[in-house]
Design a protein that fits this description.
With 261 residues, the protein is α+β, with helices and mostly antiparallel strands. It has helices at 20-33, 44-63, 102-106, 111-121; strands at residues 35-38, 69-70, 91-95, 127-136, 144-147, 161-166, 177-179, 193-194, 198-199, 211-212, 220-224, 229-231, 240-248. Strands 1-11-6-13-4-3-2 form a seven-stranded antiparallel β-sheet. A four-stranded antiparallel β-sheet has the order 5-12-7-10, with no helix packed on it. A two-stranded antiparallel ribbon has the order 8-9. A hairpin with a 3-residue loop joins strand 8 and strand 9 (198-199). Helix 1 packs across helix 4. The protein is globular. The protein starts with 19 loop residues before the first helix and ends in a 13-residue tail after the last strand.
C-alpha cells in the first residue's frame, strides 16, 4: 500500500467528550431552531486527511467515468439567474462514501460526529440511513430551492437528521446553507411542488428571507429533515465540499404505504 493510501488510526486523533451540560445545550438549540452548529469538530491533521481522502474519491470517480453531476430539476430554475445562465448547472454527488475510503467510513463511528448527533435528537444510540458527498465547484455550481428532506424518506417518529461535515469554509458566495429557523415545528409542509423534484414555492419561501449559516472547514451542521433549507449558487473561486451522514434513532423507521388489494 502506498503512503498516499495509508489510513491513520483514528485513536491518534483528538476526541471531544461532551459534558451533560453541553449535551443539554445542543438538544435545546436543536429543538428550538431545527438545527445546531458544532464549531471545529475536526481540525488539524485529521481534517487534512479527510479533505485529502475526499479529493481522491472525487478524482477516482471521475477517472472511472462515473456520473457525478446532479441537478435539482423543476420550474424554479427559471427564476434563478446567475450571470445570464438559467441554472444550466448542477453539483457533484457521490453516494455511500463509506465504500470509497476507510478514513471516511470511520467518521460514522467518531465521537466528535456521533455524540453531538445523538445529543441533538435525545438518544444514546444512532442508526445510519445513508451517506453522501455534496460538492459545489467554483463558479458553476447550482443553487438549491427551499425544501424539506422529508420527501426523500418519510419516517414515523421524524428523528431523521442530516449531520454535515464541511471540508471548506462556506459563505453565501460559495453556496452555504440557508435555513428557516424553527420551521421544523410545522411538521411536513404540504405546499411542496413535485415537478421534476420537490421544493417549496419560491414566492412563499424565498431564499433571501432564509438565514445564511456560514461554516468553517471542520464545522458540523446538524439539522432535522423537517427543517426548511436551501442554498445559494457558488459564484466564488472556492469549492464548497461537504460530507453528509443521515442518521436516526434506531426506534424510528421509514413509513410504509400499504396497498389494499
Amino acid at each position: 500500500m502506498s503512503d498516499g493510501n495509508k489510513v491513520a488510526n483514528q485513536s491518534t486523533f483528538v476526541s471531544t467528550v461532551l459534558t451533560p451540560a453541553k449535551q443539554t445545550e445542543i438538544r435545546k438549540e436543536f429543538e428550538a431552531n431545527g438545527f445546531v452548529k458544532i464549531d471545529q469538530a475536526f481540525t488539524g491533521g485529521h481534517l487534512s486527511q479527510i479533505q485529502k481522502e475526499a479529493d481522491q474519491m472525487i478524482d477516482r470517480s471521475i477517472k472511472s467515468g462515473r456520473q457525478l453531476e446532479a441537478h435539482w430539476r423543476g420550474e424554479w430554475r427559471e427564476n434563478v439567474d446567475v450571470e445570464g445562465d438559467k441554472q444550466a448547472r448542477g453539483v457533484l454527488l457521490i453516494h455511500n462514501i463509506q465504500y470509497h475510503s476507510a478514513c471516511l467510513a470511520q467518521l460514522m463511528f467518531h465521537p466528535n460526529l456521533i455524540d453531538p448527533a445523538a445529543a441533538a435528537i435525545g438518544t444514546t444510540d444512532l442508526q445510519l440511513s445513508n451517506t453522501l458527498m455534496h460538492a459545489k465547484p467554483p463558479k458553476i455550481a447550482a443553487a438549491f430551492p427551499m425544501h424539506q428532506d422529508y420527501d426523500y424518506a418519510p419516517h414515523n417518529l421524524d428523528t431523521l437528521i442530516a449531520v454535515t461535515l464541511y471540508l471548506d469554509d462556506s459563505e453565501v458566495e460559495n453556496g452555504c446553507l440557508c435555513i428557516y429557523p424553527g420551521s421544523h415545528k410545522q411538521g411536513y409542509i404540504e405546499k411542496h411542488v413535485h415537478k421534476g423534484s420537490h421544493y417549496l414555492p419560491m414566492n412563499e419561501y424565498p431564499i433571501d428571507q432564509a438565514t445564511p449559516v456560514p461554516m468553517k472547514a471542520g464545522d458540523l451542521l446538524i439539522f432535522s429533515y423537517l427543517t426548511v433549507h436551501g442554498s445559494t449558487p457558488n459564484t466564488s473561486d472556492q469549492w464548497r465540499r461537504m460530507l453528509l451522514f443521515s442518521l436516526r434513532s434506531p426506534l424510528d423507521n421509514k413509513k410504509v404505504n400499504l396497498k389494499v388489494v
